[in-house]
Design goal:
Strands 1-2-3 form a three-stranded antiparallel β-sheet, covered by helices on one side. The chain has a two-stranded antiparallel sheet with strand order 4-5. A hairpin with a 2-residue loop joins strand 2 and strand 3. By secondary structure, it is an alpha+beta fold. The longest helix is centred in the first third of the chain and has 25 residues. It has eight helices and five strands.
């Protein structure tokens, strides 16, 4: 039976001084390494217990994920050894990699890069804003597809609603983009269909009352004295022109 160990690789620090967390598999004295998709500062790692210290804000989620991956690797190793003789660490890694979820953030970055070449500016800007907001929420952590569960969606919704004061319709707009990315991943067999959290998570919207400008209000905007040629002057003229030609 191979041995397993989870640890942060001090030799591969990123620009934020964080080390990637690896799982090491040793079989017949030959090691193989598997990245778990997380980075952490060395001082936040408990080397004796091979886990994230409780002082880290995301320790519970990270430790649960690490324990899950470790259990999966041990399970695959046990299953493979029962089926065939002469199994090595590389074959175990190959089996485990098939079960390791891909990075949602990397997939989203690829999607945004594709939008730069084929989408309208508004669509690109919206996607960049949504993913940028998500990255701020995650901090230095990655986000794997399998981590996006109904519970995760509810927690992120609470963050958007309470910390960022986003409205229900704004949250709906954010989740439409996240849902689209997950649907694309499902169609590309990156994420199993049954794991799609939006099959069980209901997106909500609210009816809003739109207030329109009166003719008098539009006239007041048109008559505001602004310095000719400035951005405000140009934007005002564009807005008034759009109102007259497209409706208020």
């Amino acid at each position: 039976m191979p041995t397993f160990k989870v640890f942060p690789n001090k030799l591969k620090l990123n620009k934020n001084g964080e080390a990637p967390i690896y799982m090491r598999l040793i079989k017949d004295r030959k090691p193989t390494y598997l990245s778990l998709g997380y980075h952490i500062k060395i001082e936040d790692w408990d080397f004796e217990k091979s886990r994230v210290k409780k002082s880290h804000p995301n320790s519970a989620r990270m430790n649960n994920y690490i324990a899950q991956k470790l259990a999966e690797a041990q399970g695959h190793a046990l299953e493979l050894e029962g089926k065939e003789k002469g199994i090595n660490s590389k074959s175990i890694k190959k089996a485990v990699i098939g079960q390791v979820s891909q990075s949602f953030l990397k997939y989203a970055d690829k999607y945004i890069e594709e939008l730069r070449h084929k989408a309208k500016t508004g669509t690109l800007d919206k996607a960049k804003a949504v993913i940028g907001k998500l990255k701020t929420y995650l901090g230095t952590n990655d986000l794997l597809f399998e981590e996006i569960t109904v519970i995760w969606l509810k927690n992120y919704e609470m963050y958007l609603r309470t910390t960022l004061s986003n409205t229900t319709n704004t949250i709906h707009g954010n989740y439409k983009i996240i849902r689209r990315l997950i649907n694309e991943a499902v169609s590309e067999e990156i994420m199993p269909f049954e794991k799609n959290p939006f099959l069980r998570y209901k997106m909500k919207t609210e009816k809003t009352t739109i207030e329109y400008l009166t003719d008098e209000e539009l006239t007041k905007i048109e008559k505001v004295v602004l310095l000719a040629g400035t951005k405000m002057d140009i934007h005002r003229d564009m807005y008034v022109f759009a109102a007259y030609t497209g409706g208020i």
